[in-house]
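ok so i was messing around last nite and threw this chain in just to see what happens. nothing serious, just curious
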Amino acid sequence: MRTRGQSVSLKAFHVRKNWAELTRRMEEDRRTIWRVVFGIVALSAIMTLIIQRLPLSMALESTIIEAISFCLFYAVVTWYALRFKKEAKWVVLGIYIWVLLSAVLFNYLTKAGLPGPLHGNQRVYSPTLYFSTLLMLNWIALGWVIHRYPREVKAVGLDLSRPELKVLYGLLAGGMVGGHFIFTASFSKMLSFSLKPLPYLTWQLFYELGLRSLGQELFFRGLVFNYLYRARQWGFWAAALLASLLNLSIYLGVWGRGNPVITAGMLFYIFIMAVINAALYRWSDSIISPVVSSTVFHMLIVLR
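result:
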């Protein structure tokens, strides 16, 4: 017959065993997240450097770069939010394919046949650039994920409730940083600025809202900063600076493509914008403000 003391000992043994198993799983999850984050950032940065130096058409170059960066950002954020769900891999695959197809269609319709960058071509006046609105289809995919997994995706900032103040703060933040960049560059006479044609501005706006700014803010603020700051309990500055440095690494391909002083200045402002976006995310627990601020900032930069 088992005595009371033996029963207590067995219960304590099972508690210690379960706790050890839980600790092991948490540690393995932590290592997996680190490997995925740094692996995706390294892949995006290195492959972008290589691809930009190959003799590819602008449409094909853009599609490949977006496939290994922004499209992956969407997929990885979805994986992080749903990684404990059985169906996670299929949802992640579906999101990646959806975003990739929208990027392929976008690049084919707006960049096919371009011999060089869009901003230096007469196509900036072409109505075909209005096809950039197709990138907003990505919000349909995100909307489905938000509707299907509302609690899980809030952990990556996919909370679209009460957007008014979030949009306002994003507009103010992006306007101040972008305006400071324009003022500094104009005052130093290093750059001149002019209003671009409406088709090109429309193209840039939906490129940011539907692909670049949205993908970057989901990944670097919704996943990386949020994981470091809330899950790992890092201090704000440590989490914000590391997330911003990783964010900056995907822009290293711009080196050698222009004046190094201007390039360094732009990278500095991109880094500052990333830190501010981390603060906006901490304040709002949503990617709305960071996406809006990043979009406004990039819209002002293209005026150069």
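not much to say yet. The first helix runs from residue 4 to 51.
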